[in-house]
Amino acid sequence: MNIVILTGAGISAESGLGTFRDDDGLWAKYPIEQVATPEGFQNNPALVHDFYNARRANCAGSAPNPAHTALARLEQQFQGEVLIVTQNVDDLHERAGSRAVWHMHGRLNHAKCQSCDHTWPAPAQMQPDDPCPNCRAKTTRPDVVWFGEMPYFMEDIYARLHSADLFVSIGTSGNVYPAAGFVEQASRAGAATLELNLEPSLGASTFAQCRTGPASTLVPEWVNGLLR
Ligand code: APR
């Protein structure tokens, strides 16, 4: 049995990392166009680096919660494939012990060079004129996918959705494509679909089953049920 799990900011909320569209979310404090678009970075790279430096520090000071830990246990003990496709740029899945994790929106703890596409582990604080360790150009940025940019792993993700037996979405509002369309792909390919979220997402009606509540409760319960 192959399981594909999509996670969003809601799975990291109880670890103290902000979500995006909840009332106190990140987009309520920082205009998306200024800190999460290529144009915003072009206009003011220092502001964008400050934004991601603050998120990197926030992430370094946080810890995986029982939802992350339960998914790592599922990967270790389940007789079948378990893949996490995450929209999150934090590394809490990895720190909880998950190994098959695809960051479709990039990773906060990695940097990328806009001249040679080299990526490397990001320092805690990045500055606009940090030179690329590969080509020395001063064109480095967080290795995070911004609005208007192509997410990572898309072909491989669609292939895994088409061969999934179960698709589970955890902690995402269903606002942002292409991730918001994964449930459609999976159910069309015959997979069972389940949403675990604090409240019904925009796409809740597309799921065969929806459970509402905090991820730190719902996810361990769901995993225990599967491993029983
Ligand atoms: N447990 C479970 N779900 C939660 C919790 C919790 N403790 N707290 C919040 N949620 C849910 C909210 O109800 C909401 O549906 O998590 C979801 C968070 O939604 P968003 O803030 O929109 O985050 P996300 O869906 O991950 O955003 C997708 O948009 O801004 C871009 O690139 C960014 O990856 C992000 C993408």
Summarize the structure.
The chain is of the alpha/beta class.
Commentary on this structure:
- There is one protein chain.
- This protein is an alpha/beta fold and 228 residues long.
- The chain folds into two domains: 2-16 and 64-105 and 151-227, 3-Layer(aba) Sandwich (Rossmann fold), CATH 3.40.50.1220; 18-61 and 114-144, SIR2/SIRT2 'Small Domain'.
- It contains nine helices and nine strands.
- It has helices at residues 26-29, 32-35, 38-43, 45-60, 66-77, 92-96, 154-162, 182-188, 215-227; strands at residues 2-7, 81-86, 101-103, 106-113, 119-121, 140-144, 166-170, 192-197, 209-212.
- The strands form two sheets. The chain has a six-stranded parallel β-sheet, sandwiched between helices.
- Strand 2, helix 6 and strand 3 (101-103) form a beta-alpha-beta unit.
- The longest helix is centred in the first third of the chain and has 16 residues, at 45-60.
- It starts with a strand and ends with a helix.
Any descriptors?
2 domains, 9 helices, Rossmann fold, binds adenosine-5-diphosphoribose, six-stranded parallel β-sheet, 228 residues, alpha/beta, three-stranded antiparallel β-sheet, SIR2/SIRT2 'Small Domain'
